[in-house]
């Protein structure tokens, strides 16, 4: 087991989760500055630069999505924060605790639900929870084993051997273990891979409840719809770099954007002023390309503006963008 927190004074210093104030100048839930990780060459495998230079700030109280294709570096990033992987350079902090300066407090501030279903088959859920509490130095009087198991629907399995648990139950036990030390930041690394729809729904209900009570949630997933539905902010990482970090609504508005191509019946020398309020360009081939947001600007208004500019339309076509497209556009070919 890589966790090594045994002294409970570290735990006691971690502040309870609180509602973030709107103009909050307190430290972020998670902050990374020029974070870099190179895995050394080993066993015939060449060295691998998993994180190039990650700069990321995750606000307290957010429900944050960390998206990216397989191998992008998501788990590496998370495992550095959790003290499970040693960074090569740069700095990281959790709940204001620098992982170099205050490693125990940083680790005590974060709970990670790992990507792999690594559960010891010989412990019961209750035993696994007590063991984890011991590792994190949670005093006996502060332990909430049964309470957490109950919320995750595992109380009737508390004393069953873990090997008799279904995949979904094991996943929930991992969530329970990550919550043992009541961390203000909970990270779920691809928690629904291989989990059936009903269990996913239950898991999200519970995680949303935690979030509503003030826990900052970081979710990595490659289910885009899941991130879209749950996360208030999304960062996409690819090949060890952050390619975009935006509020979900903003990311979606990119996706919502369509491009209309208009071929005027006679060539234009320049764009007419009526189109200045749009993101429009006059292309070399004579077409006017207009980026517009269907939910904000109806097509009819655009056509009216074109008509009032005296442009006669010879042909009109659209280029569509979908969530998948934007994701691919941001993560492929680089
Ligand atoms: P993700 O979670 O986004 O799929 P990872 O952080 O697991 O990505 O991996 C990022 C890159 O680092 C991948 O190329 C992966 O093969 C490599 N990698 C991950 N863990 C190790 C390790 N322990 N040793 C060497 N390379 C690793
Ligand atoms: Mg991963």
Give a quick rundown of the structure.
By secondary structure, the protein is of the alpha/beta class.
Question: Which ranges are low-confidence, i.e. pLDDT below 50, for 5 or more consecutive residues?
Answer: 1-23
How many distinct folded domains?
A: 2
Sum up the overall morphology in one term.
elongated
- The gyration radius over C-alpha positions equals 24 Å
Main beta-sheet strand count, sense and barrel state:
6 strands, mixed
Class based on secondary structure composition and strand pairing: alpha/beta
* Main CATH class of the largest domain: Alpha Beta
CATH superfamily of the largest domain: P-loop containing nucleotide triphosphate hydrolases
Describe the overall structure.
The chain is an alpha/beta fold and 334 residues long. The protein folds into two domains: 28-252, Rossmann fold, CATH 3.40.50; 258-331, Alpha-Beta Plaits (2-Layer Sandwich), CATH 3.30.70.100. It is built from eleven helices and 14 strands. The chain has helices spanning 8-12, 74-81, 103-108, 125-135, 145-151, 167-179, 197-212, 224-230, 248-256, 299-308, 323-331; strands at residues 30-39, 48-58, 63-67, 89-94, 97-98, 110-113, 185-189, 216-221, 233-238, 241-247, 258-264, 279-282, 288-292, 313-319. A six-stranded mixed sheet has the order 6-7-8-3-9-10, with helices on both faces. It has a four-stranded antiparallel sheet with strand order 2-1-4-5. Helix 7 links the parallel strand 7 and strand 8 (216-221). Helix 4 (125-135) runs parallel beside helix 6 (167-179). The two termini are 36 Å apart. It binds adenosine-5'-diphosphate and magnesium ion. The site of magnesium ion (MG) has 5 residues, from helix 2.
């Amino acid at each position: 087991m890589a966790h090594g927190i045994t002294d409970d004074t570290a735990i006691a210093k971690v502040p309870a989760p609180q509602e973030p104030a709107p103009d909050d100048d307190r430290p972020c839930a998670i902050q990374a500055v020029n974070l870099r990780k190179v895995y050394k060459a080993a066993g015939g495998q060449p060295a691998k630069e998993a994180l190039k230079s990650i700069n990321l700030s995750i606000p307290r109280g957010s429900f944050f999505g960390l998206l990216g294709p397989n191998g992008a570096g998501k788990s590496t990033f998370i495992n550095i924060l959790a003290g499970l992987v040693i960074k090569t350079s740069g700095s990281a902090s959790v709940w204001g605790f620098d992982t170099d300066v205050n490693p125990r407090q940083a680790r005590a501030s974060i709970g990670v639900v790992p990507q792999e279903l690594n559960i010891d088959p010989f412990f019961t859920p209750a035993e696994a929870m007590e063991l984890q509490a011991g590792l994190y130095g949670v005093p006996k009087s502060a332990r909430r084993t049964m309470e957490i198991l109950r919320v995750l629907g595992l109380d009737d399995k508390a004393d069953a051997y873990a090997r008799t648990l279904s995949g979904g139950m094991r996943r929930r036990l991992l969530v329970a273990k990550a919550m043992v030390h009541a961390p203000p930041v909970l990270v779920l690394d691809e928690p629904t891979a291989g989990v059936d729809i009903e269990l996913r729904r239950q898991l999200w209900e519970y995680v949303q409840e935690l979030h509503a009570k003030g826990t900052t949630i970081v979710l990595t997933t490659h289910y885009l719809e899941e991130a879209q539905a749950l996360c208030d902010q999304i960062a996409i990482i690819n090949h060890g770099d952050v390619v975009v970090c935006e509020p979900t609504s903003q990311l979606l508005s990119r996706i919502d954007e369509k491009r209309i191509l208009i071929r005027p019946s006679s060539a234009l020398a320049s764009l007419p002023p009526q189109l200045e309020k749009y993101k429009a360009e006059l292309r070399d081939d004579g077409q006017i390309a207009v980026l517009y947001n269907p939910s904000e600007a109806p097509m009819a208004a655009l056509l009216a503006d074109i008509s009032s500019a005296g442009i006669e339309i010879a042909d009109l076509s659209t280029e569509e963008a979908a969530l998948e497209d934007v994701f691919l556009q941001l993560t492929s070919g680089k």
